[in-house]
Amino acid sequence: MTAIHPEKKTKTTRYPHHRQKVMKGNYAAAEAAKLCRVDFVPAYPITPQTSIVERIAEMCASGEMDATYINMESEHSVFAAAKGAATAGARVFTATAGQGLFYAHEVLHAIAHLRLPIVACNVGRPSFPWNIWSDQSDSLSQRDTGWVQFYGESSQEVLDTVIQAYRLAEQLNLPVLVVLDAFYQSHTSENVWVPDQDLTDAFLPAKQPGITAVDMEHPKAIGGLVPPEHYGKFNHNFWQDACRVETAAEEIAAEFAQTFGREYHNVEAVNIGPQTKLVLVTVSSITTTARGVIRSHSEVGLLKLRLFKPFPRQAVLEALRPLSDGARLAVIERNFMGDREGALYQEMQRALYGRPLSLLDFYAGVGGKDVPPTTVERIIQMALREDAEVVNWVE
């Protein structure tokens, strides 16, 4: 492995107790894992995630990061090892992508329903036809496994979201997946403000074992056969905490803003009011492009989804409340789930049931195809047409 020398750090006056560095999104994820003082990192390389675990391996080998790092033989084994370590009470981090996440599907269910507060990063890429470029089909196909899902727009947001994810995971005993776009984020260098360790420690205290961890003084069975009369109780408890995610994530983000100076929300509304005729609905890096385009369109707004699972229905409804009846929403999809509509459209349709808003779906950027400003402009023009199709493929 080629040694990577740390970039020169400079103090910044914008965010006290931070250092400004230029780093790729994958390195931002690795830096966040170090700041969170994770105890255990099982790893298996898969493009375009590999440099996350490579960077963590380097930091562990140099002593810069105090964690147990283990190379596993497959992604299924990675998440199985993560499950075991979390059951023992460790703070666990790992990363994967594409087929790696698909291969671990069985274990993802087990981790969620055993209520293990693991945080993982997924660098989104598709499956077949074989492809390593940016796509969200891998993570969105896991939306029913019980994992909380956040999508980052920038490398800064990835680093900050991983830190917040551990607070949420350990508060509710739910695993969290932080997703970043392949290459547009994972391998693109950006300015990132890295907090000092003591600032992170104040926000994220040392992990407590919790009710799901092995306790030698109070033995319990874990993962055993559950009869029908008790199965519903486990799921009801899970449901109650899943229903708390939307509110808890906002509260944690508000505390994060007070500590670190950067503000986040489950959704972000831009230029949404009674005058808005069209709202673009986006996740991840396409959001940045859309921000620039709508500056030239006073009648077009933007709804960024940061929290995707559990779907933040209340926040979405509140963000869209100012719209006049008959306004349209154009959902931009970087996924294909083998269905008529994309995953974002389906979730938005559920959330907006009963509201007289026209919902349109646009497949754009599937398999890593670039979505430049000209494509977003085309989507706007197509969506504003009186005879606009409900589902559209934008080439």
Supply the CATH class of the largest domain.
Alpha Beta
CATH homologous superfamily title of the largest domain: Thiamin diphosphate (ThDP)-binding fold, Pyr/PP domains
β-strand percent reads 15-25%
Here the CATH topology of the largest domain equals Rossmann fold
* Unreliable sequence segments: 1-10
Q: What percentage of residues falls in helices of 4 or more residues?
A: 25-40%
Strand order of the largest sheet: 10-12-11-14-15-16
Order of helices and strands: EEHEHEHEHHEHEHEEHHHEEHEEHEHEHE
The domain count comes to: 2
Calculate the mean pLDDT score and round it: 93
Compute the CA-based radius of gyration: 21 Å
Task: Report the biggest beta sheet as strand number plus sense, adding barrel if it closes.
Answer: 6 strands, mixed
Q: Tell the overall outline.
A: globular
Tell me the CATH architecture of the largest domain. 3-Layer(aba) Sandwich
